[in-house]
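So, could you explain this one?
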Amino acid sequence: MREKVFLSDNDGTLTVARKKIVGEMAETLVKFADNFKLCITTGSPYSDMMEQMPEELLNHKNAEFWCCMGNALYKQGREVYNSHNVIDFKMFEPVLEDIMQNCPMKFHKSFPRHHEIHNNCAINFTMLGRPEIGEPSMEDRAEYVEWDKRNGQRQWIIKYLQEKYPEYNMTLGGQISVDIVKKGCDKAQVATYYKDYDISYFGDRIYTTGNDNAIAHEVVNLGGTIYSVKGPEDTMRIMQNLIQNKLDGKI
């Protein structure tokens, strides 16, 4: 029997975007790692994991953190792998600077746009800014999310960029951003790393332009199981059921 491994997205799946995991969810994650190998796969850098994850999970022997779209692996606080898949940011910089001028959809509230380069291999282009340049309130974020669902601003940006740069993948990142990586350098590479395991994946953005789509597709190709969740409470309920099933000897 192959060893089980559970991969999971973070923002939107384990926690509300950029929020620290506390309370029952934090307890569930630690207990889950007590029973199963748990690998967090995220577009964010490890510094974000240090802010969001419970310390007991960060130091847990069964927890691994695949950051920057799977291009860097951390175990118990140490980087143990780096793909060195460097993205050519100079190619994108002029486009990201003026893309909002070209976009026909305009959100009625104005915030600074911002980009981050994670581990030199992934660009996160954020619609509403970041703390150091003017962070929108949670209410503004929520308003943008609903507005974007109706107007498709990020979908337009993805299509615009994909046509210009077909050798890159553009996906919806989090609630208010777009992720850009080289093809083959996204989270799907993490699933390939565990091809000899009985693999499962938790994600809230499995759909075509979501940043969980590529890894979910690869997990299916490897004969694994997909848990398409609606949010953290949904994930927590499934994890608790899996823990109980193991304790009952059902898995």
Summary: The longest strand covers residues 168-173. The chain is about 40% helix and 20% strand.
